[in-house]
Amino acid sequence: MPRLPASHADCPAQMDCCLPPTASILRGDLATDEFMRSFLLPRDLELCEGNPDPRPILEAFIRHLALGDTLRATQARLEVERKARLDLESQLQVSETKRKSLEDKYAQLQTLRARENHMHGKVLASVLSDYKSSKAFKEDARKYLVEHMEELFTDWAATPAGRDRIGMEGLLMYDVGQYTLQRDIYVILRNRDETFDPVEWGLPVEFENPDPVALAELTEAVKEEMAAGSPRE
């Protein structure tokens, strides 16, 4: 049977040099108590004197080895989890930085959008004001009225205020038409006779212009249509 070192002092670390590679405790190549005693320190040898059964020592040794393996595995797992946690914290920090950057950009875009909307509103108001005071607006309004006259009168006639407005506009247009007709007739008569006086001729006195603005617009519209070669019907 292979021999073990006499004691712990004989350097148990070199035990593998004294045993063949095929040595086995389970097959009985080595005595269990002798094998275990070769690992004990002198103080442990003193504590085990008189105890012929080495199994408690073997069990304690195995438990120690198992606990050591468990400890090392747990430490390795904790190290992996620690690195994973650090990686996750790093990713969270990067995500937080990106989130703050996006929030800053969003705030800048909101400010820029509000500024542009304000500028566009001012420009639009200026353009609308210029358009409403332009000749094009009056032409567009007149064209719309002509194209939607029936709809407008229908809408106006649906309310008392609208009907009153239609009546007022009708009277005004009648007065404007009467004034325009008299004016055109008196112009022809004056061209024939510079001394023409409607009172001496037994005609009504010249009417006052009931709506200078409307008359001016009407006169201007007639001139434009005549110049374009499309006289008013």
How would you describe this protein?
- The chain is mainly α.
- It folds into two domains: 8-79, no CATH class; 134-228, no CATH class.
- It is built from eight helices and no strands.
- It has helices at 15-18, 32-37, 42-48, 55-132, 135-147, 149-157, 160-192, 212-228.
- It starts with 14 loop residues before the first helix and ends in a 5-residue tail after the last helix.
- Mean pLDDT is 77; it is low at 1-17.
SS strand fraction: under 5%
Classify the helix fraction into a percent range: over 70%
* Topology as a string of helices (H) and strands (E): HHHHHHHH
Total number of β-strand segments? Answer: 0
Q: How many domains make up the coordinates? A: 2
- Tell me the span between the first and last alpha carbons: 140 Å
Task: List the uncertain runs.
Answer: 1-17
Mean pLDDT figure? 77
Number of helices: 8
Gyration radius over CA: 58 Å
The shape, in one word, is rod-shaped
Structural class call reads mainly alpha
**Biggest sheet, in brief?**
none
